[in-house]
Fold this sequence. Notes:
The chain is of the alpha+beta class. Helices cover 34% and strands 24% of the residues. The protein contains two helices and three strands. It has a three-stranded mixed sheet, with helices on one face.
Amino acid sequence: MLGVPAFMVHENSGGEGHGDAATRASVEGALHADGDLDAEEITVTTSGSYVILEGFVHQRGDVERAIEIAESIVGRGYVRSRLLRR
């Protein structure tokens, strides 16, 4: 599943709607499916063409892993992280 973009976010995606919901669901599913990442405290939102990751992670490297997973869905450069490590 990872490594192959499931949903691409495009400039003219039509704003908030089914495409954004599907993108959020895909990213959330991929984050929770990763066995090495505790994604319980990660919230996924969208803003225009970007996916925003907010919340907390517990392990060193989890921020980078979460970004990598999200970028595998929406593409490199379309993920903004506001994740903090506790």
